[in-house]
Automatic annotation (TrEMBL), chain A:
GO terms for molecular function: ATP binding; ATP hydrolysis activity. Keywords: ATP-binding, Nucleotide-binding, Transport. Gene3D superfamilies: P-loop containing nucleotide triphosphate hydrolases. The lineage of its organism: Bacteria, Bacillati, Actinomycetota, Actinomycetes, Pseudonocardiales. Signal peptide: none annotated. Belongs to the ABC transporter superfamily. InterPro entries: AAA+_ATPase, ABC_transporter-like_ATP-bd, ABC_transporter-like_CS, P-loop_NTPase. Residues 13-244 form the ABC transporter domain. This is ABC-2 type transport system ATP-binding protein.
Automatic annotation (TrEMBL), chain B:
It comes from the Bacteria. One of its GO terms (cellular component) is plasma membrane. Signal peptide: none annotated. The keyword Methyltransferase does not apply. Pfam families: ABC2_membrane_2. The keyword Phosphoprotein does not apply. This is ABC-2 type transport system permease protein. The chain crosses the membrane at residues 41-65, 85-111, 132-162, 182-207, 214-236, 268-287. One of its GO terms (molecular function) is ABC-type transporter activity.
From TrEMBL, chain C:
This is Outer membrane lipoprotein-sorting protein. It comes from Labedaea rhizosphaerae.
């Protein structure tokens, strides 16, 4: 908790005491989520932690068992027709008709968009297609799209109209690295344009790469939320070195006034006053055999790692290690 | 650790009135979708062949039975003329195939969209749930109407090709003009449509309850079969007048002269009741459904 | 939540309205309506007015219900009623549904036309209309409750208590209920015969026959629709459709009274008793029942006597032995020697009649 009184932050979405029971099973409970206006909020949690259920309640698709939802300042689902025109969403994977082309699918959704005038529909569809680089494939049937193309078409549907809030549920699911980069680019553009983005993911890497804020869900409850930087920096940075010559290494570092302590098969080095390359250079210079060097997990990493490694959540193999070390 | 958030910060929304896409645009979009669905087109196309098959088959049957050369060409006993062929075709198809088409359309309308994930897209757009249901009902009714009209037109044309404008004979032995005949065919068309729309309303209510189109299909068609069996049990005579498909052969009463309106009137009113009940249940389900 | 609650209320109201409508459609109209308030009338006056009433120009539907406790072939069946049209001057049209087909009988004032849609045939009876064709048609009798009821009333007054038992509704028209109950001395299976008479036109609209121990009528013939008023004259003309096979018969071909008498003589018909316990006794011409050991039934292996035996019970008496078939409204006794007795009476009365 911050000590000084902070400036009030306007919220694009807000839930209080949100609870949802599905046939007696608690899907989410006590969810108090704040999505600050203009932020890119990553909703982080292992599969089955309640991310999608929370998003569905935010969008009025599902009625909460208890609690309140405010979307763009109005209660949901009562005033869905006030808020939703300015909200774009990609929920639970892209839903399209396989017998229609990508363009026809978008035209159908565009016809339902209250913010689009009839004459603006074809242009809006072409723009959205171009934005996700599907113009060339626009006339092919959705049935023949690759997983990545389907996901991009879903993204295009969320971008048919300039939005104040875009909600993306696992947008990079099934995308190759290039596709993932494209999604990140789009999120960056939206953020730059002042659009609030709520993106859910089970990958910390993705959240770290794109988000300004993060909310961690576990077993249907928000266990941590705030600015990404704040959460990442919690705890002092450290380097873990694997080496058979632990004592020799600690000695060499202490000579250079770098705090370090012995571990069973190596040592841990405090990085407050130095950098990782410097440490490695010192150790190599001292003739220490370095087997492996890695950054120690900070607060958020530690928390998320604990959640994903616990028995009730399946760590996803897909790109799990990307961006680490 | 977290950024402090102050109170109930309501974001000013440009216009706090509900905004909706024009209904006409939604309807056009729905109809375009419905009539581009391959299943719809194939179904209607196949049903359109039925009157030709019935008409040609009747030709063989009647010439086999009463093909007395001295009597000249046999006048058609059943499905021959431009009057009887459409009425008989519609009556026969009403018993199973047309309700099947109605159920498929209703199953695709909500359960199917739910299964393909497209219902969410429409609800988030947003299309209000009751507006969406109304649009869906219109779409399903349009498929049914198209199927019935195709059957009718094909049947009238087949009848005219096979027998010309002669032989427009009613069951009561009177001969009608082509205009009168078409008028009577129109009555049957309207009556058949009402029955099918009632089936569709019930099917739509089921469709709003499930994500599996096949569940809708088996519920409605299974229900009609069960009703047919119940209706044939003498013990359950009292139940018969409550069953939608009771009197489903009454469409052929336009072939009597004067038209016997008793059964058609009763079953039309009954269909109207089922239509209201089915649509009401669909409204209740749509209003509370999690999508 | 407001929209949602409104939607749910509307849905509940709609469902309720639909169900109520369904019940209204399903239940016969006027079943629970209060009986109409009509000026009192004596049975004599009512019967008199019935006998002198003239059938007006009208159209209507007649339905026939029988709960005889026996399957009887030849009775009109199916859901569709018989439709009757008349112009009040003797021209008439009867439409008899026969399954999905229809028989049409048109009396155009001169000739009678019979059209059968099943085999697409027309029978024209020249001058048939003058000969009062109705007599030849059992279905015609059923479809003509005016005649059926009027005949019954005059016959039964000798042996019956005739009362006017309140009022009611038939085919949406107010009626007097004329009730005939057998006098205590009558030995009959019947409890009462109820004739509903239109309060204005004095035309019988419905005939119900109740058997002892039954709450529902054993036989019920009556109008389900009755609309007096001028009819389209086109209804009472008939032109055979092109290609139809037309058979012409002269009105003189119809059974003449003397021929009918010959038939009766052949059947050795005689009437025993009178009133409610009238018994008709006759003799089936040899061979009809096919019970002779030589042929052992007809060529299809069908032995009518076997069927009769399976439906009835064996009876012994002064007349010999035979088989009795009992229905709720009557009994038939078929003696082994071919004599037959029939009446709306218990078996014992038939046994006595055969003994005479």
């Amino acid at each position: 908790m911050a000590q000084a009184a902070p400036a009030p932050v306007a919220l694009a979405a807000r839930t209080r005491g949100l609870r949802k029971l599905y046939r007696g099973t608690v899907a989410v409970d006590h969810v108090d989520l704040d999505v600050p206006q203009g932020s890119v909020l990553g909703m982080l949690g292992p599969n089955g932690s309640g991310k999608t259920t929370t998003i569905r309640m935010l969008l009025g698709l599902t009625v909460p068992t208890a609690g309140t939802v405010e979307l763009l300042g109005v209660p949901m689902p009562e005033q869905a027709e006030v808020a939703l025109p300015e909200v774009g969403a990609l929920v639970e994977g892209p839903g399209f008709h396989s017998f229609l082309s990508g363009r026809d699918n978008l035209l159908r959704l565009a016809a339902a968009e209250p913010m689009l005038a009839g004459k603006a529909i074809p242009g809006a569809v072409e723009d959205a297609l171009a934005r996700v680089r599907l113009t060339d494939a626009a006339d092919r049937r959705f049935r023949g799209y690759s997983l990545g193309m389907k996901q991009r078409l879903g993204l295009a549907a969320a971008l048919l109209v300039p939005r104040r809030l875009v909600v993306l549920d696992e947008p990079t699911n099934g995308l190759d690295p290039a596709g993932t980069r494209e999604v990140r680019e789009v999120i960056g553009q939206l953020h730059a344009a002042g659009t609030t983005v709520l993106v859910s993911s089970h990958l910390l890497a993705e959240v770290e790469a794109t988000c300004t804020h993060v909310a961690v869900l576990h077993r249907g409850t928000v266990v941590a939320q705030g600015e990404l930087a704040t959460l990442l920096e919690a705890g002092s940075p450290a380097l873990v070195v694997s080496t058979p010559d632990g004592d020799k290494a600690v000695e060499a570092l202490r000579d250079k006034r770098i705090p370090a302590r012995s571990l069973p098969d190596g040592l841990q080095v405090d990085l407050t006053t130095t950098t990782a390359p410097e440490v490695v250079a010192i150790l190599v210079g001292a003739g220490v055999a370095v087997h492996e060097v890695r950054k120690q997990r900070t607060g958020l990493e530690e928390l998320f790692a604990r959640l994903t490694e616990s028995g009730d959540a399946q760590p996803d193999v897909d790109g799990q290690e990307e961006g680490w070390l | 650790m977290t950024t402090e958030v102050v109170g109930m910060t309501a974001l000013p929304v440009g216009a706090s009135r509900p905004r909706r896409a024009p209904l006409g645009r939604l309807l056009r979009s729905e109809l375009r979708w419905v009539f581009r669905r391959p299943r719809t087109l194939v179904g209607i196309g196949l049903l359109g062949l039925a009157p030709i098959v019935i008409g040609v088959a009747t030709l063989f049957v009647t010439s086999g039975v009463t093909g007395d050369p001295e009597q000249g060409p046999p006048i058609t006993a059943l499905g021959g003329s431009a009057l009887t062929l459409p009425v008989i075709s519609l009556s026969m198809l009403l018993l199973f195939l047309l309700p099947l088409v109605a159920s498929i359309a209703a199953a695709d309308a909500i359960a199917g969209e739910s299964a393909s994930g497209t219902l969410r897209g429409l609800l988030v757009a947003p299309v209000g749930r009751l507006r969406l249901l109304a649009v869906k009902m219109v779409g399903v009714m349009a498929v049914i109407t198209a199927a019935v009209l195709v059957i009718t037109v094909v049947a009238v044309v087949t009848g005219l090709i096979l027998h010309g404008t002669s032989g427009l004979v009613t069951l009561s032995g009177t001969t009608l003009s082509l205009g009168e005949s078409l008028g009577r065919v129109t009555v049957t068309v309207g009556w058949v449509l009402l029955q099918l729309w009632a089936v569709a309303a019930i099917a739509l209510a089921v469709s709003a309850c499930t994500e599996h189109p096949l569940v809708v299909l088996s519920t409605v068609i299974g229900g009609l079969i069960v009703i047919g069996i119940l209706g044939s049990l003498p013990v359950l005579d009292w139940l018969q007048p409550f069953l939608l498909s009771d009197n489903w052969t009454a469409g052929a009463d336009v072939l009597r002269d004067p038209v016997y309106t008793g059964d058609m009137g009763t079953s039309a009113l009954r269909a109207l009741c089922y239509l209201v009940i089915g649509y009401s249940l669909a409204v209740a389900r749509m209003a509370t459904k999690d999508s | 939540m407001n929209t949602k609650r409104m939607a749910l209320s509307a849905a509940a109201a709609g469902t309720a309205a639909g169900v109520v409508g369904l019940v209204l459609v399903a239940l016969p109209a006027g079943a629970s309506a209060a009986p109409p308030n009509l000026p009192a009338i004596s049975p004599e006056a009512l019967v008199q007015s019935v006998l002198s009433a003239k059938v007006p120009a009208m159209s209507g539907s007649v339905s026939f219900d029988a709960d005889l406790g026996l399957p009887i072939p030849g009775l009109p069946s199916g859901d569709k009623p018989i439709r009757v049209f008349t112009d009040g001057t003797g021209k008439a049209k009867l439409l008899l549904p026969t399954g999905p087909a229809e028989k049409s009988i048109v009396e155009d004032g001169k000739d009678v036309w019979i059209w059968n849609s099943q085999d697409q045939t027309v029978t024209k009876i020249d001058g048939g209309a003058d000969k009062k064709f109705h007599g030849g048609m059992s279905e015609g009798m059923l479809a003509d409750p005016q005649n059926a009821a009027a005949t019954l009333v005059s016959e039964m007054r000798k042996d019956s208590n005739v009362t006017v038992d309140g009022t009611g509704w038939v085919a949406d028209r107010s009626v007097y209920e004329l009730v005939l109950t057998p006098k205590p001395t009558e030995r009959t299976l019947l409890r009462e015969v109820r004739v509903a008479v239109d309060s204005q036109l004095r035309v019988p609209l419905q005939l119900e026959v109740f058997a002892n121990g039954q709450s529902d009528p054993a036989v019920k013939v009556g109008f389900t629709e009755f609309a007096p008023g001028a009819q389209d004259p086109k209804l009472f003309t008939f032109t055979p459709p092109p290609g139809a096979k037309v058979t012409e018969r002269s009105g003189n071909d119809l059974p003449k009274p003397e021929e009918a008498k010959g038939l009766i003589d052949q059947l050795q018909l005689k009437v025993v008793g009178h009133g409610w316990d009238t018994v008709l006794v006759g003799k089936v011409p040899a061979g009809v029942l096919g019970a002779t050991p030589q042929n052992g039934g007809d060529k299809h292996g069908f032995d009518p006597m076997q069927l009769i035996k399976s439906m009835g019970t064996k009876v012994q008496g002064p007349f010999g032995s035979g088989v009795a078939i009992k229905a709720s409204v009557g009994t038939i006794l078929i003696a082994a020697d071919g004599r037959v007795a029939i009446g709306a009476v218990p078996q014992q009365v038939l046994v006595e009649a055969l003994g005479k």
